[in-house]
Amino acid sequence: MANRHLATDTPELRARWGSFVWTKENRAKADWHIAKYPDGRQKSAVMPLLDLAQRQVGAETDTQGWLPLPVMEYVAKYLDMPVIRVVEVATFYFMYNLVPVGKFHVQVCGTTPCVLRGSDDIIAACKKRGMEKGAVSADGLWTLTEVECMGNCATAPMVQINDDNYEDLTPERLDAVLDALAKGENPKAGTQEPGRHTSEPSGGPTTLKEMVAGNHDYRGQW
Amino acid sequence: MPKVTVDGLEIEVPAGATVLQACELAGKEIPRFCYHERLSIAGNCRMCLVEVKPGPPKPQASCALPAAEGQEIRTDSPMVKTAREGVMEFLLINHPLDCPICDQGGECDLQDQSVAYGRGASRYDANKRAVTEKYMGPLIKTVMTRCIHCTRCVRFSEEIAGVDEIGALYRGEDMQITTYLEQAATHELSANVIDLCPVGALTSRPYAFEARPWELKKTLSIDVSDAIGANIRLDSRGREVMRALPRINDDVNEEWISDKARYQVDGLTKRRLDKVFMRKRGKLTEASWDEAFKAIAAAKPGKKIAAVAGDILDCETMFAAKALLGAMGSKLLEGRQTGMDYDVSNLAAVNFNSTLAGIETADVILVVGSHVRWEAPLINVRLRKAVKNGAKVFLIGPEWETTYPAEFLGTDLAILSKLPKAVADAFKGAARPAIIMGGAAVAKGALGAGLSFAAKYNLAREGWNGFNVLHISAARMGGLMLGYAQPGGMADIVKAKPKVVLSLGADEMDFEPFADALKVYIGHHGDKGAHSADIILPAACYAEKDGTYVNTEGRVQFAEKAVYAPGDAREDWTILRALADALGVSVGFDSFAQLQNAMIKAVPALGVEGLADFGALPKADAKAKVEGMITAYLIKDFYLTNPIARASAVMQQCSAELLHGDNLQEAAE
After folding, report:
1. Which of B271, B398, B413, B426 is 20 to 30 Å from A74 at the Cα level?
2. Which strands make up the sheet holding B60-61, listed edge to edge?
3. Is the pLDDT of residue B669 over 80?
C-alpha cells in the first residue's frame, strides 16, 4: 500500500493534460453516471467519472491510464465539487493510478492465501521478465504492483492485469499469459488450470457430492 | 427524553443526545480527540469508548451512539479502562514523543489524556511512521508526523468555514492531512484549526517557540479588529502580548475568531508611539508632556475644540474626551471618520437587531453593500449556518466569494426598492426575513430606503427584528451611544472650523480640511493620524487598558488590561484628564472608577454587560429612495484594516501572500 504518491505538479504535466476534456462518448457516459443521482448530488458520481477519466487517459497514451492532477481538476469542475475531495477519493482507492503505468498493469496479490499458494514465485517471475514494482518497464508495456486480497483465494495465486483476473497461476502459466498479451492476443481470463471453469473445487467436489447429478435431500442425515 | 443510567446514576437526557453527552450530563469525563461540539461526528479516534448495555459485549464509541431509553452506561469498568489504554497505545504508536520540542506541550489533549488514561509506557519498538511537512500558509505551522487523524481540521474548513481546502489523502496508516497542492489556507478563519487540533500537528506559525502556556498571564479581553466584539483571551508574558485566543461565547463568537483578531497582536509592539512628539518646523521632534500640554493650551481653543474618535476606541476614552469637550463648551464629537452622516436619532435603526445568534435563524436574508466575509467573518459563519438550515441569501453589491449558495442581484441600490419578483415573493412568504445593511450601502445614504424596505416587508414583527446594520468598527456603537455623531457627519466638524482637533486614534479621517487647526493625535500607533498630527500624545491600545466596548448588535462588553503601555505612553483617559488641567477646566473624575461611574450615569446602558435596548425601529419614510451603484466595499484589504494590523508583520505577510499573491520571498539557500 505504501509508496503511493501524487505525480508532481509540473509545467510539463499542465502542458500535457491541462486541456483534457471528455471525448464525445465519454461525455455521454459521464452524464449518464451523473443522471443516476438526484439533482444537487452530482458529486456522488465522482468514482465512475474518475474511472472514466483514467480510461480515457489510458486510451490516449495506450496504457492502463492514470490520473494526472489537471484531469482530477477537470473532473472536480465537471462535478462542481472541491478538488481536494476528488483527490481524497483518488488517493484512497488503489484502482486509481496516481502515476503513469504501462500498457499492462500487473497487480499480483500478495495476501496470505496467495502467498501460501506461491505468489512469491509469481512476483519473482514478473521481476525476471524485467518488471519492477511501481515502475514502467523499458518497453512501456508492464507495471508491477503488489496488492492486497482481490477475493480470488479459491483460485490462488492470481494476478489482475487491467480489467481481467488470471488465476491458478504458476510461473509458466503466467509467462504464457504475459507472452500472449505482449503479442497483442487475448488470453483466456480466469483460471488457468486445465479442466477448471471457475472457482469450483479442483478435482471434483469433496462435499455435497450427491448434489452433482441432481437435487438431493440431505435433511435425513442431519 | 430517554432515561439512562451512567455508572449507577440515573439521569434523563434530551432526545437526540449521544451517549457521550449523557455521560457529560452525569458529570463523567469522557476522553476524546475527534469529537467536537460544533463539528459533525466522525467517530474515528475511538478514545471515547464506554460500555453500554444492552448492546454487543464490547466497548462502544460513545460520541456516535445515540442515548436510548434504559441504557446502562459504564465509564468506570475494567473493560473501559483497558479499552482506553489500548486506544491510547495505538494512537501513540505513530505519534512522536517529542513533547519537549512541541509547541502544543502543556496544552495538548493527547499529552493530558495519555497521562490520565494511558498505560504509562509503550511496548512498541518498531519504527514509527514519518510524514513530510505540509505548507498551509503563513499562519499555520505543520508537523504532520504528530497528526492522529482526528479530521477536526477537515471538518472545520468544510462545515464551518465553508472553504473546502483541507483534506485527508491516502488511507490507513498512510493517511495525510493536507491542502490541495499544499496551497495556503486562504480564508479568514483558517487559524481556528490550530485551536481545534488536539495535538501539535497544526500549531501557530507566528507564535512558534515563543512561550509555554504556563508562563503566560491570561487576561479576558474583547477583540477590536471588527465590530463583532469577539471574546478573546490575551496571553501575555512580561510586557508583551504573546497571543490572542478565542473564548467561548455562543451569543457572539461561538468558539472562533478571525485570523486578524488572532494575529494582529504582534502589531502591539511595532510602530508604537512611546514618546510625546511635537511638530517643529515641519518635523516631528520629541518633546515633554508639559511642552505638549502648554502648546495645546496656548492654542486657546475655547469652544473651538473637536474630537474625532478612532475605530478601535473604548467607551471610557470617548466619554473622557466628551467630558473634556463638554467642560470647554464644545459638542464637536464625531466617530464616523470617513464622512458618513446617517441619521442616528434612533439607534435601533443603526443596530444589528437580529443579534448575531439570531441571524442564523433567519430564512430570507438580503445583504446590501457588505462584504460580510471581510467585514465580519463571524457573521458570515452565521449566514452559512442559516443557509444550511434552508435560508435564502441575496446580495446587492459587487460579487465576492460567498461560502454558501447565494444570489447576487446586481450593484444598483435601486434594486432595494424594486426587488425582482422572485426575491420579493421570498420575502413576502418568509417567517423570519432579515436585511443586513453594510457600510458601502449606508455611505450611499441607503439607510432610509432600508428602513422603508423593513416596513414594506414587515421585518420587525412579534419576537423578531430583521433590520440589521453591520458596522466594521469596534468603537462605532459605543461612539453613537455616547453621541459621537454630528447631523452632517465630519462635514459639520470641518464647517465649525475648530482651533484644536483631538484625533483619538483616528487614522482613517481626512486631516486636510483641518490645515489651520492644531491637530493633536492621542493614539498608540505611528499610522496615518500620527503622520498628519502637530502633537502626538502616546496612549494605550486595547490590550493596555480596561475598557467597555459595544459591538454591532449593541452588546456591551468589558475588556481587561493585559499589559502596560510601552515607554511614556499612558492610558487615554489619564491624558485627557491631564489635558483638562492644562486647559483649566474640570471634567469631574480623578480615577478610572469615577470616570466609569460618570459614564454609566450619563449612558446607563453602558453599565450593564449584555444587549443594550434601543427600542423599536423608527417609523420609515415610505418615500425614501436611494440611487447609485455600489462600486466597492469599505474594506479593501481584510488583513490591514486598523493601525495595529497595519503594524503587524504577520498581517502584512498575510496580505501580501494571501490577497496579493506575491510569491514568498525565499531565503537564498
Report:
1. B398
2. B9-12, B3-6, B72-74, B49-53, B60-61
3. no
